[in-house]
Design brief:
The complex is a heterodimer of chains A (about 260) and B (about 60).
Chain A: E1 6-8, E2 11-13, E3 17-20, H1 29-36, E4 40-47, E5 65-68, H2 76-88, E6 94-97, H3 110-122, E7 126-131, H4 135-144, E8 150-151, H5 165-174, E9 180-182, H6 188-197, E10 201-204, H7 206-209, H8 214-234
Parallel strand pairs in A: 3-4, 3-10, 4-5, 6-7, 7-8, 9-10
Antiparallel strand pairs in A: 1-2
Chain B: E1 2-3, E2 6-7, E3 14-15, H1 16-23, E4 31-34, E5 37-39, E6 48-49, E7 54-62
Parallel strand pairs in B: 1-7
Antiparallel strand pairs in B: 1-2, 3-6, 4-5, 4-7
Classes of the chains: A alpha/beta (about 260), B mainly beta (about 60).
Chain lengths: ~260, ~60
């Protein structure tokens, strides 16, 4: 697996597990990142506390790539504004575009996401758009300059798993960009499954943050993602639609 | 003027860097928008604040 690099925005990564940093105590971030083996961590941009004490960036190990999101944006214009501020925070030019008009299901607004992706690409950002898995929109995102496409598996924070499985597979098959499955993945087995399907990476936050033991779940996800990647690279064995096929020789039986 | 939606009284002519220091912000962890325009860190000392100004000061927080 040494040669299997994940390349995103011109950077090389060994890990295919993008970890979200929301919903947990900052004290646990370091252990989660280390156990996850994560090299990319998402963050949000919000109004600052004047104390500045305990800023999350202080708790993220050195060398980890920060991936700010545009959460809170309700349209392309707001997403562009948040992205520019995130770059001004001085931690690189990666951005996860996340635009929502709906606060019940938190589904992304694909059209506004395409607009923001085009604008931010022109401004030199490495743009990773979070999107509802629609092939036409994924093509528009690719044309707009996206560095990857981040389709949702299920609503954000739901831990419901691969509700959009068939449509994610279409993106994997048809889009010539890394497909990073984001949102809704609740279990390591689901992360493993999308990696077997050929996803380039998995992003998870709530599945880890709401687990009984956060560092242990981070580790479980790491192994599942690695296993799924290896299985994809190995090529899954074929499925026989009906009947069985002996694995042992069908000759030389001890019978008359 | 307002900082992050809260009204503040200015005490005389004050630069952005003085104001941010008075308010206790950690400069290496913030980005600033003045009336909708980003102010680069290098310009804090030469940017002066007036009563009508709206300042947004942001930082990273945990998020997915």
């Amino acid at each position: 697996m040494g040669e299997d690099k994940f390349i995103l925005g011109g950077k090389e990564f060994q890990s295919r597990f993008i970890l979200g940093s929301g919903k947990y105590n900052v004290e646990l971030i370091k252990a989660a990142v280390e156990n996850a083996g994560a090299e990319i961590i998402t963050l949000a941009v919000r109004r600052a506390n004047s104390s500045g004490e305990g800023n999350i960036v202080d708790f993220i190990p050195e060398g980890v790539t920060l991936l700010p999101n545009t959460s809170g944006a309700r349209n392309a214009e707001e997403a562009v504004r948040i992205a520019r501020l995130s770059r001004e925070l001085g931690c690189g030019n990666f951005v996860k575009v996340e635009i929502m008009r709906d606060s019940k299901y938190l589904l992304p607004d694909n059209q506004e996401t395409v607009k923001a992706t085009g604008q931010l690409t022109k401004e030199g950002f490495v743009v990773l758009p979070y999107m509802y898995p629609d092939l036409n929109v994924a093509r528009d995102l690719a044309d707009a300059g996206a560095a990857a496409v981040m389709p949702l598996a299920a609503p954000i924070g739901s831990n419901k798993g691969l509700a959009t499985r068939e449509f994610i597979q279409i993106l994997i098959d048809e889009i010539d960009l890394p497909i990073i499955v984001d949102a809704g993945i609740g279990r390591p087995s689901q992360a493993c499954e999308v990696m077997e399907m050929g996803a380039a990476a998995v992003m998870a936050n709530t599945a880890i943050a709401t687990a009984g033991n956060i560092p242990l779940m981070a580790s479980a996800f790491r192994r599942a993602i690695e296993a799924g990647r290896e299985a994809y690279l190995a090529g899954l064995g074929r499925v026989r639609e009906s009947g069985g096929e002996a694995s042992s020789p069908v000759t030389g039986f001890l019978r008359d | 003027m307002t900082i992050n939606g809260e009204k503040k009284e200015l005490s005389g002519r004050v630069s952005l860097s003085e104001l941010l220091a008075q308010e206790g912000f950690r400069l290496e962890r913030i980005a600033v928008e003045l009336n909708g325009e980003i102010v680069p860190k290098a310009a804090y000392a030469d940017t002066f604040i007036s009563e009508a100004d709206k300042l947004e000061v942001v930082s990273f927080v945990g998020g997915g």
